[in-house]
């Protein structure tokens, strides 16, 4: 039963990562011509990563219309996609 519950949690968590519904964070990654925008949930990022906990609560990230906006031009979108998962 516990394994089944854990598996459901993992699936739900993965779905949240893939869904842009109710996101509150936009992360723009890369430099022209290779830029990708990721939509995420700050509470999940902050909970899973001390880096994001610091970044999203500091002046590194801007705010625009209740969204947290964060630019990371020094990382490739393909690399960030692996890291965010």
TrEMBL record:
Pfam families linked: BTB
Ranges for domain BTB: 23-85
UniProt protein name: Btb/poz domain-containing protein 19-like
Upper taxonomic lineage: Eukaryota, Fungi, Fungi incertae sedis, Mucoromycota, Glomeromycotina
Domain of life: Eukaryota
InterPro entries linked to this entry: BTB/POZ_dom, SKP1/BTB/POZ_sf
């Amino acid at each position: 039963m516990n394994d089944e519950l854990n598996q459901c949690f993992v699936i739900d968590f993965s779905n949240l990562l893939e869904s842009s519904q109710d996101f509150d964070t936009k992360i723009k990654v890369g430099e022209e011509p290779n830029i990708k925008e990721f939509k995420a949930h700050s509470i999940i990022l902050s909970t899973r990563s001390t880096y994001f906990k610091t970044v999203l609560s500091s002046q590194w990230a801007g705010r625009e219309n209740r969204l947290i906006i964060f630019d990371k031009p020094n990382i490739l979108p393909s690399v960030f996609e692996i890291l965010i998962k």
